[in-house]
Amino acid sequence: MVVRPNTQEVQMAQNAGAMSEQLLTPSEVAALFRVNPKTVTRWARAGKISSIRTLGGHRRFRASEIRKHLEFASAPDA
User: Is residue 62 assigned to a domain?
Assistant: First the structure.
């Protein structure tokens, strides 16, 4: 007999893994890029940056990924 976890259990496991890393709100990401928080939400919807959804449906962003995007954005053009 194979026992498969339900959707909520899978989501909780994913969130537990994400909890070990710092997560940022859209406002925090917007402040780093000096853009409006709505722009950050549009980037996430367009797939330019990945986001995690909380159980309440709010977006959160991995700090390590945002740092990589900031480094890329601030790199001088070659």
Answer: yes
